[in-house]
Amino acid sequence: MRCSGGRILSKKIPKAATCHPDRWIAAKGLCAACYRRWLRSQGRLKPAPCHPEKPHYAKGLCSWCYKKSMMAAWPSEKREAKRHRSNEYRNRWREEIKVRAREWYHTSQKSPKFDPLKARKMVISTRYGLKPEDVAAAIERQSGKCAICRETPSELVVDHCHKTDRFRSMLCRHCNLVIGYARENPQILAASIAYLALHSTGIKWAS
Predict the structure, then answer these.
(1) How many CB atoms lie within 10 A of CB 181?
(2) How many CB atoms neighbour CB 197 within 10 A?
(3) What is the CATH number of domain 130-197?
(4) Domain residue spans in the chain?
(5) What does the alpha-carbon distance between residue 78 and residue 137 come to, in Å, rounded to a whole number?
(6) How far apart are CA 82 and CA 88, in angstroms?
(7) pLDDT (tens digit, 9 = 90+) per residue, 39-92?
(8) Exposure string over 100-123, b if 16+ CB within 10 A, otherwise e
């Protein structure tokens, strides 16, 4: 099989993966995502020097840091041009995008609507590099209590640093929202404590 330039191309036709027939095979009959998952389960993925709790992706970095470094290496003009094209596309087809997203959510078997537990595990794994057993161990260390208010809610959520993406602890939703709304700024939280202490002393202010 030859192309127009005379170069010989491979006669091999990519096969469908056994795990996901809609994806190409990467190795061992698996797609790329499942193959990396298998490597991780076998302990054959090296930890990334930047984030030891995450697997190595490329150039001594985890996937998140590698993507950030690649974006930073882009010229600013190209980044701005791509951002402008994306915003222009979304603004032009806003309603159609909403319709497609709504249809996918209600009909696709990959939608979190059909398996919310699996979707949550995937988010925790890809975003924070945590396994379900890591989350269970953290909850057990805290005796099922929030790390801040020490109450025992019906559900604990993962709290992480938005700058480094490092996992910190398990919090109840209220405490997690408080930290988020305070923009993770200790000065804002300290000022909030002083504000509550001031206005809980029974001082009546003139109207």
Answers:
(1) 10
(2) 9
(3) 3.40.1800.10
(4) 130-197
(5) 44
(6) 10
(7) 878 777 788 888 887 778 888 888 888 888 887 887 778 888 888 999 999 999
(8) eeeeeeeeeeeeeeeeeeeeeeee
